[in-house]
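pinging the channel bc i need a second pair of eyes. not urgent but kinda urgent?? the chain im working w is below, pasted from the shared doc
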Amino acid sequence: MRRAIFPGSFDPLTLGHYDIIKRGITLFDELVIAIGINADKKYMFSLEERTKFIKEAFKDEPKIKVVTYEGLTVDFCKKIGADFILRGLRNPADFEFEKAIAHTNRKLSEIETVFLLTSSGKSYISSSIVRDVIRNGGDYTGLVPDTVIVKS
């Protein structure tokens, strides 16, 4: 079985993430959306909310599992038997950052990193931009899946 993880904080899940996940499930038998827990990071959305956003967005996709994890991503891969890490790239800066992590992961283990370019029209979307729009009362509905839209 070709199992991959798509790690991230998903604070919140964006249409960019959604795009990579939908395209990633065509490449793997199982895609584990792995929500990393970092005690030093201040999140806008709780772990429970972030998990719910993702589970609801992919509730009809049997090839997707949503889990949380702490520690090194490569250690988590070993623990669940994943041979691949899926990552999305929006721009050249993402590539340079992700390349360094991929090389480090490869040095620490036999995990392969698979990169997908974000689809045209979604490369400007990031969780930090979405959080800023939300904090400032802007319309973020075109940046996230419907499951993330908080009803007032």
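so The beta strands are 3-8, 30-36, 64-69, 84-89, 112-117. and Helices lie at 15-24, 47-57, 73-80, 92-108, 127-135. — does that match what u expected or am i reading it wrong
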